[in-house]
Write a structure and sequence with these properties.
This protein has 326 residues and is an all-alpha fold. It contains 15 helices and 2 strands. A two-stranded antiparallel sheet has the order 1-2.
């Protein structure tokens, strides 16, 4: 558990959030704001993955199952039952967390870990995708469309800036929560499970309970990203909700930014989406160019920056400080 003071622990998060909040003041270009909204959405999903994979060491290839559940519950409650958007959003988070609890109990109770657990999560996401694609209640292959009614009480806004601030608020809240988790006993138990699960169990840590709690938190945060996606685009289908794209990006941004760190997913998401947009502007809309870029960056990150961009920047900073020393 970290023993730094509250200002040192939470101050940098609030400072970065305040700095980013000034972006809509500096520019009103919808292309920039839309790109940043998507980057923050992926950062939110990445924060969810990071709780389980970065801090808990339980790598998942199927976080789309949580993202999609949050998205579909948010959309269907509004489209089918006329539920208020904010209530539907909260219900989507709760549903995603519940799916995480069930998946975690079934997997961890059976002793699955490592590649076996990763494959089980991938299988769950694919099963949910097939079911959503084949079920009339979810709209089948046509998907579900949320009625356009641009009013704040419907979680719909005409300005991209408002969506940006909401996404930033969600990411900031989760980052503060992750920092709190780092400083808590639960955070210490979770890291102990990551480092050596058998040793943690021998020391009295209830590893099953800790892992289930971690995947529940992870799933809830990722489901929030799914719910926000629905409110931003007012549409969801099986491939968007449960497709591999979100599972890949959710695990990629913490690895590139800094695995098991508070700022890692945000750094990774901004860097990856900024680079992806620049690549598309230069190379054009070549199909799959973004996935090729992500794969290349993942290889480079693992080979040359195993601690992610945050670790690389810290290393460069230490090197510069040492070089200036008398």
């Amino acid at each position: 558990m970290s023993r730094s003071g509250p200002v040192a622990a939470y101050g940098p998060i609030l400072a970065v959030a305040l700095l980013l909040a000034m972006l809509p003041v500096a520019t009103s270009a919808n292309t920039i704001l839309n790109s940043m909204v998507m980057a923050l959405l992926i950062a939110l999903a990445g924060q969810g993955w990071n709780i389980l994979g970065g801090y808990g060491g339980q790598f998942s290839f199927g976080h789309a199952v949580f993202f999609g559940t949050g998205a579909y519950v948010t959309a269907l409650l509004q489209a089918r039952f006329g539920v208020n958007a904010y209530v539907a959003f909260a219900a989507g988070i709760a549903a995603g967390a519940m799916v995480g609890t069930i998946l975690g109990y079934l997997s961890f109770r059976s002793g699955l870990r490592g590649s076996y657990f990763a494959l089980v999560t991938l299988a769950f996401a694919e099963v949910f995708r097939i079911l959503a694609n084949a079920t009339a209640f979810t709209g089948g292959a046509a998907g579900t469309l949320v009625k356009l009614d641009v009013r704040p009480e419907n979680f719909q806004f005409s300005s991209r800036a408002v969506f940006f601030w909401i996404a930033l608020g969600l990411v900031t809240a989760v980052m503060l929560g992750v920092r709190f988790m780092e400083r808590s006993r639960f955070g210490a138990w979770l890291v102990a499970v990551r480092e050596n699960e058998d040793a943690a169990r021998a020391l009295g840590v209830d590893t099953l309970k800790v892992k289930i709690q971690a995947i529940t938190l992870s799933a809830g945060v990722t489901a929030a990203a799914g719910g926000f996606y629905v409110q931003y685009f007012l549409f969801i289908d099986a491939n968007l909700a449960y497709g591999t794209w979100i599972s890949i990006e959710a695990l990629l941004v913490p690895i590139v930014g800094g695995l098991g760190t508070v700022f890692g997913p945000l750094i990774g998401a901004v860097a990856l989406h900024g680079l992806a947009e620049a690549t598309k502007a230069i190379a054009g809309r070549i199909p799959g160019i973004d996935l090729a870029l992500y794969g290349s960056l993942l290889v480079l990150a693992i080979a040359f920056a195993p601690n992610g961009l945050q670790g690389l920047m810290a290393k460069i900073g230490r090197g510069l400080s040492f070089g200036r020393a008398p």
